[in-house]
Specification:
This protein is mainly α. The protein contains 15 helices and no strands.
Length: 299
């Protein structure tokens, strides 16, 4: 009886009914830019993870006899300064950038969401203490923190994910804290407390489900930012050690040869970074519109 009553107090949870989910998808499907972004992202994922099966290349041992070859037969995008096939390098580098970016963005969103929801729901001294930690961290430039931490530890995929997530969670924490402050005064939460529900139930069964739209939208932007952070660190020489690669380290290596006209070392990784970040931003904008109740009513 108690469980049924508590669940009945949650009428506004996002995507709680199939009809609402269909309306959300319908609004998203009408957004041309969002669909284009989703298509570009799918193509990039296929390129990075399935491409090596179609175009297998040697990406471990160098071949200086094939160094810095212009695009041509056998090497559609040319070769790097160490003789790696650039097309294959772009695929393997994309795997690293996407894996680290996706994992770091989702981890930051998960931790920041729970942190912000707890701070916003409990309020008072709990909120004040938790938000002072967030404010202090936000006062320090994110790139500075990333560079300092990355310089101290040896970069690897798991380490990069943790480093980037340790900086990126601050934004979703503040965002979800605002959502929790608005939701904590709703009638169904008052009813839950009167029925004996605790803070954990309020946060995980009521606050977070009702903020799911904001969480999903923010996650897409966090992933895009995380991919940029990977590129920033790699460009500054704080990437995963060779022979591993990512788009940022490829771009950093290519910049060295701008004066001698090796354009193929710069444009492919640069364009790939721009495309994937733009794709996530378009998807995020589309999801923001899709979760807008006003647009769903006109759908």
């Amino acid at each position: 009886m108690t469980t049924t009553a508590l669940d009945a107090t949650q009428p506004e949870a996002a995507l709680a009914t199939p009809g609402l989910a269909r309306r959300t998808l319908a609004v998203f499907a009408r957004n041309t830019l969002a669909l284009t972004g989703a298509l570009v992202l799918l193509e990039l994922l296929a390129f990075c993870f399935l491409g090596p099966l179609v175009h297998p290349t040697e990406q471990i041992h160098t071949d200086l006899a094939q160094a810095a070859l212009a695009p041509g037969a056998g090497h559609p995008l040319g070769t790097t300064d160490l003789g790696y096939d650039l097309l294959g390098r772009l695929m393997y580098g994309g795997r690293t950038s996407l894996e680290v970016g996706l994992a770091a963005g989702l981890l930051a969103t998960l931790f920041g969401t729970v942190y912000g929801a707890v701070a916003g729901y409990f309020g008072g001294w709990v909120d004040a203490a938790m938000m002072r930690v967030t404010d202090a961290a936000l006062a320090i430039p994110a790139l500075f923190l990333l560079v300092v931490v990355a310089a101290i530890v040896t970069p690897s995929k798991p380490v990069l994910i943790l480093i980037i997530a340790s900086v990126a969670w601050l934004s979703p924490a503040r965002l979800i804290r605002g959502e929790a402050l608005a939701l904590r005064s709703r009638d169904y939460l008052h009813a839950m407390r009167l029925m004996g529900g605790g803070g954990g139930r309020a946060v995980f069964r009521h606050i977070l489900p009702n903020a799911i739209g904001t969480v999903i939208v923010n996650a897409t932007f966090q992933i895009a930012d995380a991919i940029l952070y990977v590129a920033y660190l790699s460009f500054l020489g704080l990437s995963i050690p060779p022979p591993a690669a990512d788009w940022g380290s490829m771009l950093s290596s290519g910049i060295t040869y701008t004066q001698v006209g090796y354009w193929w070392l710069i444009f492919p990784p640069g364009i790939a970074i721009v495309l994937v970040v733009a794709a996530f931003h378009c998807i995020g904008d589309g999801l923001r519109d899709a979760f807008d109740v006003r647009l769903q009513k006109h759908g």
